[in-house]
Amino acid sequence: xxxxxxxxxxxxxxxxxxxxxxxxxxxxxxxxxxxxxxxxxxxxxxxxxxxxxxxxxxxxxxxxxxxxxxxxxxxxxxxxxxxxxxxxxxxxxxxxxxxxxxxxxxxxxxxxxxxxxxxxxxxxxxxxxxxxxxxxxxxxxxxxxxxxxxxxxxxxxxxxxxxxxxxxxxxxxxxxxxxxxxxxxxxxxxxxxxxxxxxxxxxx
Length: 204
What we know:
Blueprint: H1 12-42, H2 48-57, H3 59-85, H4 89-114, H5 118-124, H6 132-144, H7 146-161, H8 165-189, H9 194-203
């Protein structure tokens, strides 16, 4: 792939504009995932309000899962950038490989630990006997797809660290568009309801 931004030679001012703006847009678009889910869930006939309350309970744990990817790759991406700036491509590759391995390991550990504890966790974050079935339905599917959530968030940062801000932005946009398209298909056309929203998010 042709170099989009030469982090070692391009002027700093233009680099900031070419990298920061797409990155900011990508972060904004990523928020659409949860917003779109909630719009569709809130419009489920008869149970929309209760289901929406249940899914809202999952928010803190979903954020916690995503923060693990940030912990790994916001630490790894500067090291990759510095290695590339020094011309040490082999070290950059090793760091990238280690980050990928850590993401996969973290996904496996989080899935194994959180799934058995999901009931007390959801009640701790505000679920009730009424909202728990919907929270559990969404949460179980989402946590089962933790590997996709971590890879999406983490690898986006690693792509950005190599100077490919537009590529990272396009991938986030693709995920958001897929989520918007798949949500009504899974939730309404296939009759999956709340689990369909989680499945659309995980696949996107």
